[in-house]
Amino acid sequence: MATLGALTLQAVFRLASRQTEKVIGAIIDLLGPDLAVPSEVAGTEPTQRDRHLQSIAGHGRAAWQDMSGYTERSRAEAAIGRFKRVTGDGLRSRTDERRATEVDVAVHALNRMLELGCPMLVRGA
Questions:
Q1: Domain spans of the chain, in order of start
Q2: For 44-59, b where at least 16 C-beta lie within 10 A, e where not — what string?
């Protein structure tokens, strides 16, 4: 999160790296290192976010990611993001049948581009 914040600060305010590090350090000093704080009702009626925070605190972040399916969702979101970046945000066709065909063509084109960009590994003797 700090890295993303630093990159955002650099991009928005055109700060140098050492200036960005000082700003991030000041923000963390003000907010404290533990930014994820449970809600007031976490003890009696925990929300979904509270349950996630409790799981992270009890089992660790990596175990929480495995238990909650975070990794699969993250990969799916990344795939949709790549698809939209290549094909655009919307479909141009108006009927469902043509939209399905448009998505099918776009998926085949994206898969072909990925195939062309992947190196072919050959085991040497």
A1: 1-35
A2: eeeeeebebbebbeee
